[in-house]
From TrEMBL:
Residues 6-47 form the MYND-type domain. Gene3D superfamilies: 6.10.140.2220, Tetratricopeptide repeat domain, Zinc/RING finger domain, C3HC4 (zinc finger). The keyword RNA-binding does not apply. It comes from the Eukaryota. Keywords: Metal-binding, Zinc, Zinc-finger. Pfam families: RINGv, zf-MYND. This is MYND-type domain-containing protein. It comes from Pelagomonas calceolata. InterPro entries: TPR-like_helical_dom_sf, Znf_MYND, Znf_RING-CH, Znf_RING/FYVE/PHD. PROSITE patterns: ZF_MYND_2. One of its GO terms (molecular function) is zinc ion binding. The keyword Metal-binding applies. The lineage of its organism: Eukaryota, Sar, Stramenopiles, Ochrophyta, Pelagophyceae.
Length: 391
């Protein structure tokens, strides 16, 4: 995680409190911990190295990035056998000797790359946009290369997303706190940690980011994005009521500021529906989805990942609701079977959305079988009670 705690006792310092080493900016809750770290914690030997690397935050980011790249390459090793990087054309990176990764929606021999090559490519594109004073739309598109594959145009996931989050953070952490790229890098790091199930670390990053953006007087739109990310982490940590409270606020805010036909609004609608499902408020969830799914299909198209995920969630609410009818369960299964065919064609079998559909379809079929079993049992019982020969 980023450095929001005392290096000795782990007291939470946020981003502004505490004391820093005058040379390398390692953070402490006070002079006693600083002295202890210097005299018995080994900081006297590391201080110059940390300063040389660019300070405590940069040093920490460099280490975490290196560790994350190793994890990502190992996780992709089976998939990348015999392949080469589409950027540098080598199997092993010439400098770092790291292996290849993929974890997007590319298939066949497409999309294999080194995390270092992806990061360098994104860094160059963003730098060119900044140097040429290109508009915000271009800047945002180019910054998207930190998390989205340029070939299949789908977001990286799992350990690759986490490694790219650290790559982005280590690239921009040295910039001023007010710098746009640094703020977005912090957001990307938080989502990458969450994507890789490091939820406590993600919580620390996201809470620090929200505090920073509020302190700097950031726009309401940006605050809503951070709150949405934080709500996801609350959900993954089991803090469901906290998650729902933020989800509702974010959805209402996006509707107010951006209207229905906006991707952030649609994302927040889906997330709000998910939070309602987690608290078994199925009818309320369906109400949100029935309102916003037609908007997603019209605005983004039937094959868009977000549109598919909204339909998955609608079918899931039907399967989970104890009050669902036999027709409801049949609708859920039919819907998910159609979605599975679409997802396999568009994204491939390994993509998270395809996997989510497979899981939801299995659950829906099981619910349908159980319900049909109940109906058949009832019919058998009725027939057994009917006298022979009666009409």
């Amino acid at each position: 995680m980023i450095l929001t705690q005392c290096a000795v006792c782990a007291t939470d310092l946020g981003l502004t409190l505490g004391k820093k080493c005058g040379r390398c900016s390692t953070r402490y809750c006070g002079p006693e911990c600083q002295k202890q770290h210097w005299e018995g914690g080994g900081h006297d030997k590391l201080c110059k190295l940390i300063k040389k690397a660019g300070g405590a935050e940069q040093y920490n980011a460099n280490i975490k990035y290196t560790e994350a790249v190793v994890v990502a390459a190992e996780a992709c090793a089976e998939d990348t056998k015999g392949q080469t990087c589409y950027i540098c054309t080598q199997a092993l990176h010439w400098k770092t000797k790291e292996g290849l990764v993929r974890m997007c929606s590319c298939r066949g021999t497409a999309g294999f790359a080194h995390v270092s090559c992806l990061a360098e490519q994104a860094k160059i594109l963003v730098a060119e946009a900044e140097e040429n004073n290109l508009d915000d739309k271009v800047l945002n598109e180019r910054f998207g290369r930190w998390h989205t594959c340029s070939l299949c145009e789908q977001m990286y996931h799992s350990v690759v997303r986490c490694a790219l989050g650290w790559a982005c953070w280590k690239t921009y952490v040295g910039r001023p706190e007010t710098d746009w790229a640094r703020k977005f890098a912090m957001s990307l790091l938080g989502s990458g940690l969450s994507e890789n199930n490091h939820h406590e670390d993600a919580l620390s990053v996201q809470e620090a980011e929200l505090s920073m953006r509020r302190r700097l007087g950031d726009s309401e739109d940006n605050i809503l994005v951070v709150q949405g990310n934080l709500a996801t982490t609350y959900q993954l940590l089991g803090r469901l009521e906290d998650s729902l409270r933020l989800r509702q606020k974010v959805y209402s805010g996006n509707l107010k500021f951006s209207g229905e036909e906006n991707e952030e609004t649609l994302v927040s609608a889906l997330n709000y529906a998910v939070s309602l499902v987690n608290l078994e408020r199925y009818q309320e969830s369906r109400k949100v989805l029935c309102k916003m799914t037609p908007v997603a299909r019209r605005f983004l198209g039937d094959c868009n990942d977000l549109t598919l995920r909204m339909q998955i969630m609608y079918a899931t609410t039907l399967s989970l609701d104890e009050g669902a009818t036999l027709d409801d369960l049949r609708e859920a299964v039919t819907t998910l079977e159609e979605l599975e065919r679409t997802a396999r064609r568009v994204f491939g079998s390994a993509y998270p959305t395809t996997k989510a559909i497979e899981h939801a379809l299995e659950m829906s079929r099981e619910a349908l079988r159980a319900h049909e079993g109940d109906v058949n049992s009832l019919r058998d019982a009725v027939e057994a009670m009917t006298p022979p020969g009666s009409a």
